Amino acid sequence: MTEKDNKKQIPLRVSKTLYDELARWAEDDFRSINGQIEYLLTEAVKRRRRGSSSPKGDDETTPASGESADKHKRP
Q1: Would you tell me the crossing angle of helices 16-28 and 33-50 to the nearest 10 degrees?
Q2: Fewer Cβ neighbours under 10 Å: the N or C end of the chain?
Q3: Residues of the chain below pLDDT 70
Q4: Total-model pTM
């Protein structure tokens, strides 16, 4: 059985803005949009398995500046 035979097809709906951004990123990396999405999902799963689900400073509860997350909340 080839890798192609093992792949599942899934419908995916994204906004035009996200699609356009993914298309630019895919072009920069010389991939198809489908290949770029598959690559990004694969990397996210690898990071999750390693236990680092979000890059430092990307989490709302841990601002990159070191300030309290409460400081950035609206009243």
Answers
A1: 90
A2: C
A3: 1, 3-4, 52-75
A4: 0.60
